[in-house]
């Protein structure tokens, strides 16, 4: 296996490293790496900060392990290699009446990455997390391959386990039947946070998600656009054409006045009476994927994303968070609010019942302090931050946010005593340290 020295970075383009990378094309090649040079495996590096980086050693890229191995049209069970992108599964199987049960906000996420982060989607309140629909997975470890199933401790340590149990070679996914390859989406303006949360609480739609104007304050604090959607049959409307960001945006592009003006216009693009539209699957599930390299819109310095989940009883914390962000002048146009159900598949999985808020911040000098403040607020409220996006949480916060961390660390340390699978995130947060 050839190892190539090159640069790598997280999706936020702030955390960067240089190291050795291998790109196996066959499971047998992954077996050899697992035996001779065990190291972390990553997919498309869509984690925002340092979760997908290993500054201290080698890394396996799974992008060439992207084959569909089998599909049972009677049961809907799909066997796919870890590097297979979720958008490709949607493209191939939605016209045949099947869809992954859970889809995150980007189709560039891989099967292995979706398992390692136990991703969630716009239907978490009904369907739970991605890992809850994994029928089995195959790990490639120094002592050989092992097939792991739900209910086994190793499965629960792997799903949401940030790659610390070894490279995933393939997985069997339970797909869901669908009516057709389109989504019926109802969009409506929501004037403030209380109204927004109340609508989320009573919604019976299979999919719900909302954009928040993170620059709004006063009586308009938390205003936004709520989307409720369900799958439908019919003709597929033309998908939006993909666009490329040809250069890094200049600093003034995200100046406070520009963002406030953009957000106000975006809010008013929906008629006061609301509207229902038909969208292709990709446009609904992966809206930003149509803008290739959209992370360049934040300029050369990159950006951070904060995402937390707080219990349903902690509405006031969300209000305080949004008020702090609006007052800071750091908000970007990207802010999302959803309601989550109780479903999670792994010991270190992020999803928990509550409200989840995600906000992008340009990487300015003031951003780390703002994000640390938001993390502390989530911690105090009994919530947690999403490790796929975290850049500023502290090790002492982890046991409160992830109460199964010690048990998880004991299991992964027993299987990987040399720490071969550790990544920069794992080291920064001392996730495998046991006092």
Automatic annotation (TrEMBL):
Gene3D superfamilies linked to this entry: 3.30.465.10
Keywords of the record: FAD, Flavoprotein
SUPFAM superfamilies from the UniProt entry: FAD-binding/transporter-associated domain-like
Domain of life of the native organism: Bacteria
One family name in Pfam for this protein: FAD_binding_4
Transmembrane stretches, start-end: none
Location of the FAD-binding PCMH-type domain: 14-178
Gene Ontology molecular-function annotations: D-arabinono-1,4-lactone oxidase activity; FAD binding
Matches recorded under PANTHER family: D-ARABINONO-1,4-LACTONE OXIDASE, L-GULONOLACTONE OXIDASE
Name of this chain's protein: Decaprenylphospho-beta-D-ribofuranose 2-oxidase
Species of origin: Tropicimonas isoalkanivorans
């Amino acid at each position: 296996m050839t190892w190539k020295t090159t640069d790598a970075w997280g999706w936020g383009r702030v955390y960067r490293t240089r190291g050795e990378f291998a790109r196996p094309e066959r499971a047998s090649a992954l077996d050899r790496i697992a035996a001779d040079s065990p190291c972390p495996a990553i997919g498309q590096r869509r984690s925002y900060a340092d979760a997908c980086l290993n500054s201290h050693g080698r890394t396996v890229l799974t992008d060439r392990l992207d084959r569909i191995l089998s599909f049972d049209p009677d049961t809907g069970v799909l066997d796919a290699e870890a590097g297979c992108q979720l958008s490709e599964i949607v493209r191939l199987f939605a016209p045949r009446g099947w869809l992954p049960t859970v889809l995150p906000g980007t189709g560039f996420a891989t099967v292995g990455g979706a398992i390692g982060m136990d991703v969630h989607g716009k239907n978490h309140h009904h369907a739970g997390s991605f890992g809850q629909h994994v029928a089995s997975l195959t790990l490639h470890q120094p002592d050989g391959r092992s097939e792991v199933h739900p209910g086994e401790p190793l499965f629960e340590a792997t799903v949401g386990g940030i790659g610390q149990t070894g490279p995933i070679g393939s997985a069997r996914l339970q797909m869901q039947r669908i009516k057709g390859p389109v989504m019926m989406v109802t969009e409506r303006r929501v004037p403030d946070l209380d109204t927004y949360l109340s609508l989320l609480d009573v919604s019976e739609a299979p999919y719900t998600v909302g954009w928040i104007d993170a620059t709004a304050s006063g009586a308009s604090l938390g205003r936004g656009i709520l989307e409720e959607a369900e799958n439908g049959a019919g003709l597929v409307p033309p998908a939006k054409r993909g666009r490329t960001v040809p250069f890094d945006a200049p600093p003034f592009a995200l100046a406070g006045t520009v963002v406030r003006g953009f957000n106000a216009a975006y809010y008013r693009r929906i008629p006061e009476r609301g509207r229902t539209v038909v969208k292709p699957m990709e446009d609904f599930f992966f809206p930003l994927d149509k803008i290739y390299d959209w992370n360049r819109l934040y300029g050369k310095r990159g950006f951070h994303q904060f995402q937390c989940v707080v219990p349903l009883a902690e509405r006031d914390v969300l209000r305080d968070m949004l008020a702090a962000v609006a007052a800071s002048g750091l908000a970007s146009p990207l802010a999302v609010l959803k309601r989550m159900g109780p479903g999670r598949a792994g010991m270190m999985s992020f999803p928990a019942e509550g409200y989840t808020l995600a906000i992008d911040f340009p990487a300015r000098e003031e951003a780390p302090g703002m994000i640390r403040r938001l993390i502390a607020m989530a911690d105090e409220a009994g919530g947690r931050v999403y490790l796929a996006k975290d850049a500023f949480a502290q090790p002492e916060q982890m046991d409160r946010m992830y109460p199964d961390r010690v048990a998880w660390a004991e299991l992964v340390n027993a299987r990987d005593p040399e720490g071969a699978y550790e990544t920069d995130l794992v080291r920064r947060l001392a996730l495998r340290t046991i006092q």
